[in-house]
Amino acid sequence: MDARKQPGVRDTTVLQPPGQPHDAAASAPGNHRWVWAVLAALLLLGLAVIFALPGLIGPVHETAVPAQPLPPAGDSLALRDAAHQTLQSYLQLRARLELDNAADWGEPDWSEAATRVSAADRYFAQRQFAAAGRDYQTALDRLQHLAANRGVMLSTALEEATRALAENDVAMAISRFEAALAIEPEHAAATRGLAQAHIRTAIIEQMNRGQAAETNNDLEAAEAAYRQAAQLDVDYEPARAALRRVEGQINERDFNAAMTQALAALDAGQAGAAGKALTAAERLQPGDSAVRDARQRLQGMRAQAGLNSLRRKAADRVSSEDWPAAVQQYRQALAIDPAAGFAVAGLRHAEERVALHAQFDHYLDSPDRVYSAVPLANAEKLLAAASEAPPNEPQLAKKITALRELVTRAGTPVTVTLNSDGATSVVIYRVGRLGQFDTRQLELLPGDYTVVGSRPGYRDIRKEFAVRPGMSLPSLVVRCEEVI
User: Fold this and answer.
1) What is the number of structural domains in the chain?
2) What would the pLDDT profile of 6-20 be if each residue is shown by its tens digit?
3) How far is residue 267's CA from residue 284's CA, in Å, rounded to a whole number?
4) Exposed end of the chain (fewer CB within 10 Å): N or C?
């Protein structure tokens, strides 16, 4: 066992300070090979820093790097660290901007920054750290300027795109909207504008068709083309303005045609055709004064036509003595024209006839009314007032005759025979006391009567009987026979 590995045995290996001769083992050929391997690795690492690292950081441009005197060792380390820190800031900012697609919209700052970094990498490889730090900073400034002006670049692209679209420069508009979307892919206005730019060519084609049709006075075709253009892009004001203009021309044309037709119908007395044409005109231009004036004229025509119709209908009712219907016709005429003379006079006459017929019907519908003294007297007065009916009123004449006959019969007495027992006292209401008798005949006017018989010690007897014209009444027995 090795004595150095045993407990309690001190290690006797001798350590040599740097620069002192090594022992024989240290100078063996195998140890020399190890030293050369380390030196070779360091050399390769240095070459990688010089040539490979600049390629990874950015494109290398062949630029002349002026030779500069080497600074003192302490200053060189500080400059190297500063250059390295600036490079790291640059790489971090570049990485962020690459995520935002800055290579697509950041020219010329993006390429100029890459060029400066390539030059700085060469300076760094030649240990000219001051120059490297300066160019790294210039590249960083470029990217910072790019990041700071992103909003301005977006606004500029949108302004240029909007102006190009307004001028129908479709290619430019698409290019600038795409540039804006490269800066901010989800930008709503740029997205909408790009969509509008892509359909602008089709819109322009429809606008040209509409203009050609409008020039040829084919307004319907122009309207269809302009409407198609407006539907393709609802925000395209020229299409909407053209559509409004043509629609106005069509409206004016159709309105004039409808008014011409309405006035011609009014002149011809064709109220129905005039009304239909005026309705069409009013639908096209509501509230137009010409339509209002024509409406008034039409109303006058219709009113006169209505009055003429009502006059004819009322005359028919008068000729047939349908006085209630005549009253209705005259009232309708007065509702159209309160000053219509035929309706004023006709209504007054018809209402008088309605009242007169009602008076006759009062007795004729219930003939028994005249079998009382007061109604009979009133009926006689009515006959005296009515006198004779006009020749053209046969129904009234018939009623006068019928009532006159009724009154005549009501005033003609009828013989009534009463039988009693000579002991019963007989009284007829509204006639008088007849006393005691065995048989008695009376001349009574048609009507309803009540006879009462009384006798001492006997229960009274009461009977009612009716006397009618032309009736043959049997003898009426009036005797008190029930002893009390």
Assistant:
1) 2
2) 333 333 333 232 333
3) 22
4) N
